[in-house]
Structure formats: C-alpha cells, structure tokens
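Structure request: rhamnogalacturonan endolyase, Hevea brasiliensis.
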Amino acid sequence: MANKKLSLITQGPYVLLDNGLVRLTILKPQGYLTGIKYGGLDNLLDLKSSESSRGYWDINWSLPGGQDRYQLLNGAVYRVVERTNDCLEVSFKSSYNPSIQGTKLPLTVDIRYILKSGVSGFYCYAIYERPAGCPAFDLAQTRMVFKLRREKFHYMAISDEKQRIMPMPEDLLPGRGKQLIVPESVLLVNPINPDLRGEVDDKYQYSMDNKDGGVHGWISSDPIVGFWIIFPSHEFRNGGPTKQNLTAHTGPDCLAMFHGTHYIGDDILAHFQEGEEWRKTFGPFFVYLNSTTNVSNAYNLWKDAKKQRLLEEAAWPYEFVSSTYYLTAKDRGSATGRLFVQDRFISGSPIPAKHAHVGLSAARTAGAWQTESKDYQFWVQTDSNGNFTIKNVIPLVYGLHGWVPGFIGDYLDNALVTISAGSETQLGNLTYVPLRDGPTEWEIGFPDRTAVGDYVPDANPAFVNKLFIKSPEKFRQYGLWDRYTDMHPESDQTFTIGMSDPKTEWFFAHVDRRWADNKYVPSTWTIKFNLDSVNSGNYKMRLAIASATRSDLKVYMNGMDIEHMVFQVMNLGTDNTVCRHGIHGLYQLFSIDVSSSLLVTGDNSMFLAQARGGDALCGILYDYVRLEAPAPPGNSSVGEAFDLDAKLI
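Returned structure:
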C-alpha cells in the first residue's frame, strides 16, 4: 500500500500529526500527548486521566540538601522543526532564564515528537540543557510516561517469561487491595478479576536491567492492539548496562525510564554545581504500534515487537532526527580491541575475557560507571575470544571500563580513550588483572555481580505472584526476607566449606531475623572451614557485595570480640534491593586482611554479622566470598604482566 501523505493540522490548542496509520494529538505549547489514534481506537491513552497525565515527561529534582521536588515537564513555545513528505518533527520548548527570581527547575527542556510516513508508530526524545548562570541542583529521575486505556489494556509483556494479564488500577485501592509493609506492594483481596485473588502486585516486580530490556508494552482487547516502547540504544540512560529500571505496571502504565536512582540510591544522583553547563539528548525511543483481527494471533504482537526492536537497533543512530545535538553515524566513531584476564593462580597464560562487558564512560575510576549520570555510556559484550568493537560512539575522551564473569572486581584501562568522528580507535590487546594475593583456600559463589546461584526460597503462599512461581526470577516474590526466619527459626545459617551447597544452603540475602512480636534483630552467619596448615603472614578475604541496604557489616575470625574483628563497615548501602525484589544493586568489593595469628590448623570459623537490627528490609546480598592464602615467597601481589604479543605469536 502506498504511503499516505503526512499531515499536520493545528486545531485550537492542539497539534495533530497524521500519517494515515497513526494520529497524534498534542496539546500546545505544553507538549502533552493527549491522544493516539490507531488500529480502530480513537485514543489508546486513558480518557479518564487529565490531558496532562496521559503521555508526559516528568522529573524529580532538588536543590542541594533540599527536599525532592516532582513536576511535569512542559513546553512554552511550539514550533515545527521539520516538515517533508517523509517526516514531521515538532518541538515544545521551555527555556530557563537565570534572571527570573524564584525557585524554578534550572533546565531548558525541548520535547520532540517525530512521525514518519508509512511507519506504524512514532519517536520521542528530549533535549535537556543547563545554560550558563544556572544555580546548583540535583537530578534524581526523569522519564516519559504513557497511561493507557484501563478498560482496554490488560495484558502486559516485558520479556518472553514475564508477561501476563494484570490487575485493574481499582484493585490497588482499599477494599479490593491491602497495602503491605512495602508501600508499592498490594495484596489483591477482592480483585475485579477473581483469578488474581490472593496475589501480590508491585511495580518493582517488573524491573529490568538496561542490558536485558529494550522492548516492553501492553496488548489491548477488542480491538487487539499492541503498544510497545522500544529502546534502540541505552547510551543515554544513566548507570550503565546493569542499571535496573521500571518498565510497565498496573495502571496500565508504560514507562520510558532514562535517569533514576532505583536499586542504587543517592550515590547515582547527578549533582550540578553553580554555573555548570550541561546538555544531554534523551532518546529518541520508538513507540511501536501493531494489531491483529484474530484473537489467536494476539501473542504474535509480542513476537513482532521483538523483531521491530532488532530493526530499530540496526537503524541506530537514526538519520532523520533534526536536532544538531543528536549525532548521526558519520559524526560518531568506534573502538576495537581484545581483552584478556591475567590470574597466575588460574592459568600461566593469558585468558581470553569471554563474554565480558566492556564499555566507554566518562567515569575515571574503576566501577564508577555504575553511578555516572551526566554523560553517555556505550557498552558491548566480548565474544568467546575476548574481541570487541564498540560502535557509534559520540566523540569524547572516555575511560575504558569492564568486568568479566568469573573474576572479581572492575576493569579500568590505564589510558584514556579518545574517540573521533568517522574513525576507529585501535585499542589492541588489553589485560585485566583482578585483585589476587595468593592461592584460593576456599570460595563461595560465582563472581557475576549478582546473588544468582544462591538459595532463593519459595514465596509464602499468602504473598505470591503466580508469574514467578516457576520462573528463574523467583526472587521477584514479595516477603522473601521473612522466609529466612522461616528456614532458620532457632539459630542462624551455618555454611561448611566442602560440604554445604550455596544453591541450597546459602540464603540469597543476609537479612535481620524476625523475632517475637515481629521485632527484627541482627543475624550472624557462620562459615566453617578447615586449613591443613597456616602460613605466616596476612591471608586475604575478598568480599564482593552484589547489593546492600542500611546494613552494619562486621566480620570476625574464630571469635566474636574486638580482638577477632577483621572488618566492619557501618550504614552500608541504599539500594533497597531486598524490598524491591531484586538480585543485585550497587556492586562493591572489599579486600580484608586476616592475620595468620587469628587462624589455626584444622577447624576455623568466620562470622558475618549483619549487626543492625529493627529493620525488616535491610540486608546484604553477597556476590562472592574468597579466602586467599599469603602470597608465596618471591611473588608480587598481582604477578608479572604478560607480554601478550609474545604469548599470542
């Protein structure tokens, strides 16, 4: 079918963009998306919501040290950016004027919509800018939200495994739902759909890592229409590939999250100093719409959306975006190299960094990419031989970061990487040397920056989400913190090296114990291990934390008094991973000296004390624990560097 000519009509306070497949209705000059006509529906957006609360951008921000402020983002000036036979782009811009007195968000915001001929969907993006003279402020969260027709959209899909018929928004209100100790968690006691009775609904149960997401949305009934948010790139999202974001949840709401603090906390706030200039383009992302007249083909809408995601990724960076602040492929560069791991206690030869994550970030210290929030990040995975190419990188000077499954810590190359437009930067052979002093005496877990592989219990039958009963993400269930007490009602967990199995005997979260009268008291885990002999010097404990929330961690060796304490850290973490049903948050690695004088030949015990009580939702998720013997005489703590070129000849 021939593409219908694009039309742009001004109708009172509205702008209508139409390509024959999709019609957008946008309130001007604010830029609120009030209507989406497609597939037999005059409006896919929620008619019961106000016009400013159907399709909108919003932001959470604060003055330094001040309270969080929430506001909708809107334009003050409307203009047509581009109008051709193939593309319409419109802008709704609000400019910050430092000379105007009063408390006002110190950002210039330009919200854009793009409609293309013959395309079943539309593109959204926004340009945030701090001109000279802006006061200091902190940016916590920004996103675009779509509220869909609640009487139409009931089926949500965010992955092959995570899709289902969802509750109605009324089900979360008193009478139909009962709020639990986590405010976002609601027990459905009398839902409109009786099949959902007894389940728990919580928006955080549908969180996804950036690296694992890319497409999520809803399918309506009568007519059968799919509404999908597709991220063709994650370069403009803060926190890198492991940053977890909300996707879609009961509303029915569909979110395009760009910048947030979830699962990390205030460490990832973007702090802007007085007078600091800054600009960032968020997006574009694609809203894809599809439909079918055959109810038996409804699932195919999800499959089709996944295919469309691949097409959008292949087309990135888009050539049709009009803003001069958005760089197309010819204005970008790339970097290529090969990463190896050097660990002399595992191999005498360099080990190709198989399926490692490698990325370019403005962060200048190892691991700091996790909390980097102002600039763009570009990540890929290496192949089975450690080779990688990072394409379509915005020209800048970056730190080269990475981590390798199976090895602790974060990689940061010694040299900064300069990316230039139209050229490929050759990085050659690179070597990651993980922290290591001596041979492994024992270890628990597999270092992959998560608590996956540890024991995750079944949910309490009174607080279940059926979607996760047989799911690999059974940790998404509500109330698992209390299952620790159910499993260990009289005494805390003891793990014996060489006998115990982490998959069945190492609880995934080190939480408080529920005691009488629902009081929560500190808990202490014991690790028992045997040493054939004790070498003189310092042993080294590597403690990799996958997540922590309001925890006081104390580590003791062969006695729980001050003389036997080898480590403590107070008020560790603000991840909120326990209550938000996650398996990882902010990765941290601690290296702890253990004097040989504290160890004995034969049986030994190490104690991990989660020493803060009174908090049901505090806790630590351990990624990996390892005890290393002292380095053999004449060996350095990390070994000598490999001559890779010589080794590979």
